[in-house]
Amino acid sequence: MDQLPPPLEGVTVVAVEQAVSAPFATRQLADLGARVIKVERVDGGDFARGYDTAAGGLASHFVWCNRGKESLALDLKDPRGLDVVRRLIARADVFVQNLAQGAAARLGLDAATLCAGHPRLIAVDISGYGSGGPYAHKRAYDMLVQCEAGLVSVTGTPEQPVKAGIPAADIAAAMYAFSGVLAALVRRGTTGRGGPVEVSMLEALAEWLGHPLHHAMHGGTAPARTGLAHAVIAPYDAFPTADGGRVLLSVQNDREWRRLAEHVLRQPESGDDPMFATNAARVAHRERTDELVGKALAALDTDEALARLENAGIACARLRDVHELAEHPQLAARERWREVGTPAGPLRALLPPITLPGGTGPSMGDVPALGQHTGALLRAVGMTDGEIAALRRDGVVA
Questions:
Q1: What is the pLDDT of residue 223?
Q2: Residue 31's CB: how many other CB atoms inside 10 A?
Q3: Is residue 284 pLDDT above 90, yes or no?
Q4: Residue 339: which residues within 8 A CB-CB, separation 6 or more?
Q5: 223-to-24, 248, 250, 251 alpha-carbon distances in Å
Q6: How far apart are CA 239 and CA 248, in angstroms?
Q7: CA distance 222 to 212
Q8: Are 263 and 297 in contact (CB under 8 A)?
Q9: Pairing of strands 236-240, 69-73
Q10: In the predicted structure, residue 203 carries a pLDDT above the cut 80
Q11: CA–CA separation, 249 and 185 (whole Å)
Q12: What's the CA dihedral at 269, 274, 280, 283 to 10 degrees?
């Protein structure tokens, strides 16, 4: 049976993007076979290129979010540079931008303006807080939006709220932009028309806050911050083991507690002890419950603790760091790692989590150097070598 082509083969995306939200969205499109043309500043490009040098001398954010794209470096403030983008958009299926609020409109690159001139175009505006309202022009970095959306208030310990360790607001906006593009492409397939897609980081992350939000709105109180513990289930926490590891376990019902007491704690009498026999009792006596579990696991190596928990049918996990994630046996067994080309040489990268059996697999193209495809793209929109040389001489392109 012939393999199916990539689902977005033949779709062209032009992106005036920076940082994480738009680049991560368009990388998903590139992985599915779309051609993504990334428009960057001539003076350094996407500023995420300069965040760090951890990935073989390249910025880890940039490597993560920008594989499989073509880089066009030009000055949008010069009319000649803006004209190049307009020519590319005229041939594109999708346009994505996450410039500072109002900047795209000043350039005539906002979704409403572009879709009015190109009825088949799908144009995505990603912003921090949306196009209207009192926060529309506030700076909207990921951590700021995590604070405004309340994520920080429900993450951390009882004493200390903390931000998420990943750019959760950026990722949330990226994934809604990605799914919004897919939905708009389906609609265009039936109607022949594209249209604007609007995504705000605040609204995306607020949706992800759905459980604590509904808990607070309808129950009157926000869920307590409990670190790795669970607010209303016990035992549900991470416990140290004898070899310096930590094991997280979750007891979901009283039958599981009795199995835990017998097979892991080796104290079957605790299974029916009124202090521990029900979840309500264990939560009421959480300190004693955790002490009982913690003492038993502290005497075991991590592997032995996990084996006992698994054999008893108790949900459990090893608390890993990111180095251990990179060597996770499940990812290795499922062959989820590939290599992608970069200006610094090949680097390991995870396959995208969307698996489409029967197809050719995700594209996972190279991470581009700044302006790597400028010449080819300018020639593709009809410019002569002389015109291109003049633009380079004047610093309009790089």
A1: 84
A2: 21
A3: yes
A4: 346, 347, 348, 349
A5: 30, 20, 18, 19
A6: 6
A7: 6
A8: no
A9: unpaired
A10: yes
A11: 43
A12: -60
Q: Of 397, 375, 365, give the one whose Cα is nearest residue 26.
A: 365
Phi, psi angle pair for 283, to nearest 5°:
-65, -40
Q: How many CB atoms lie within 10 A of CB 379?
A: 13
**Catalytic entry in 170, 272, 303, 366:** 170
Q: Residue 273: CB partners within 8 Å, gap ≥ 6?
A: none
Q: Cα–Cα distance between 4 and 57 in angstroms, integer?
A: 37
* One-letter identity of residue 248: L
Kindly state the average pLDDT of the residues 325-351. 97
**Quick one: pLDDT at residue 219?**
83
Q: How far apart are CA 387 and CA 398, in angstroms?
A: 13
Alpha-helical regions (H) of the chain: 21-31, 60-65, 79-90, 103-107, 111-117, 142-148, 168-191, 201-208, 210-219, 254-259, 279-284, 286-298, 302-311, 322-326, 329-333, 374-380, 385-393
Across 154-170, average pLDDT: 95
pTM reported for the whole predicted model: 0.94
Q: φ and ψ at 359, to 5 degrees? A: -105, -175
Supply 197's token pair: 């897609």
Annotation says 2 is catalytic: no
